[in-house]
């Protein structure tokens, strides 16, 4: 018999409404304040390499709805995709596909256009990172709980390791986030995200996530042509 799980977020409607209100207020304020910087980044991308400033990709959002995720382009147009052994996409530290401007954007500034996705209702400031449709097709019943909430610009998994974690481990952390969700947790994840460049994690968020004895880095054995059979993948890798 399959396990039936409740949605802890749906049961707390007032907090959900407050979360959405904070998302709209903070995303709107952020876009207003950052518009000159965003325009400068867009011009720099266009001058640095041929192609559009924005990279647009279909992702799976709340309740399985497909939406168009926005981010700044960080790779050369038409760059080949590389894959890890678990099927997730790979971007090495010295990856030749990443443009000169892109290497300064990846992992933080490239995600700023998603403030528009937040205003549109596609995303939240904090939540599980959205997967590609081909990823979502491989979810187990338990993993589909990830679709109870809006995906986020930042996430608990991003704070705890991002690409250093293999794909299924990131999903497991997403599910722990959903099970422990609160506005206070969102605030901790948001502040911990801003603290990442300083190499500190001030709230002990790793304590929320059970140890995984099988954990391994997602950077092993890349392929430059096609993903393993049945594995997810798409151009411009973006976890």
Explain this structure.
The chain has one domain (about 15-210). About 35% of the residues lie in helices and about 10% in strands. The chain has seven helices and four strands; from the N terminus they run αββααβαβααα. It has a two-stranded antiparallel ribbon. A hairpin with a 5-residue loop joins strand 1 (about 55-60) and strand 2. Helix 1 packs antiparallel against helix 3. The longest helix is centred in the N-terminal third of the chain and has 36 residues, at about 15-50. The model is unreliable at about 215-235 (pLDDT under 50).
Task: Write a concise synopsis of the structure shown.
The protein is mostly helical and 239 residues long.
Topology overview:
Layout: H1 13-48, E1 54-60, E2 66-72, H2 102-105, H3 114-120, E3 124-126, H4 133-136, E4 152-154, H5 156-160, H6 167-179, H7 183-195
Parallel strand pairs: 3-4
Antiparallel strand pairs: 1-2
Helix pairs in contact: 1-3
Strands in their spatial order, largest beta sheet:
1-2
Class of secondary structure makeup: mainly alpha
What sequence of helices (H) and strands (E) makes up the elements?
HEEHHEHEHHH
Mean pLDDT, all residues: 84
Sheet with most strands: 2 strands, antiparallel
Low-confidence stretches: 215-236
The total of helices stands at 7
**Distance, first to last CA:** 32 Å
| Approximate shape | globular
Radius of gyration equals 17 Å
Beta-strand residue fraction: 5-15%
By DSSP, the count of extended strands is 4
